[in-house]
Design a protein that fits this description.
alpha+beta
């Protein structure tokens, strides 16, 4: 069974949903590792209007990107954690621990949507510890919300701990966490 046939999540609306896929990870700057049914990518990203235009230049999404972008375009940087299903190589959840506008994504393959949820630093504190907590304790729920039911069912508490530990160690190694 794969994660591309599901019933859309029911419940309160979360974030802003787009049909524009998130910018793909840059293979040259992303470190990958597998834990159980998951492939995790950790990437330091610097995004600006020119970089985003280059990413989406040859796609049908460029005009929609411009319409959805704030005045002057989107500029930010920070670490992204890509949560991908090993079974189908689809990124279902992404944490963008950016300096100015931290946020996370639910990328629903079957629906063809990308829901962006802005992170509230006032309510939740610093984004990196919060992200590690979600990886450790909430990842199956987040995967289900993105339509990855089969993958979510395979993520045990032990796998959540392993994922968070690996991401934390990598963040320390690259100097993003002391």
């Amino acid at each position: 069974m794969t994660d591309n046939d599901h019933t859309p999540p029911v419940g309160p609306r979360v974030g802003t949903t787009y049909t524009i896929p998130p910018a793909p990870p840059d293979p040259a700057s992303t470190d990958w590792f597998d834990v159980g049914p998951l492939r995790l990518g950790i990437e330091y990203r610097k995004l600006d209007p020119a970089a985003l235009d280059a990413i989406y230049a040859d796609s049908e999404h460029l005009d929609a990107l411009h319409e959805a972008s704030p005045e002057g375009g989107f500029t930010d940087e920070g670490v992204s954690v890509h949560v991908v299903s090993v079974a189908d190589d689809h990124e279902f959840v992404r944490f963008d621990m950016f300096v100015d506008e931290p946020h996370y994504h639910y990328v629903d393959k079957a629906a063809g949507t990308n829901t962006v949820v802005m992170f509230d630093t006032v309510a939740h504190g610093p984004v990196i510890p919060w992200t590690l907590g979600q990886l450790r304790h909430r990842l199956p729920d987040m995967l289900r919300h993105a339509g990855a039911t089969t993958t979510a069912d395979e993520v045990t508490p032990e796998i959540g701990d392993q994922v968070a530990d690996r991401v934390e160690a990598h963040l320390r190694q690259i100097g993003e966490l002391s």
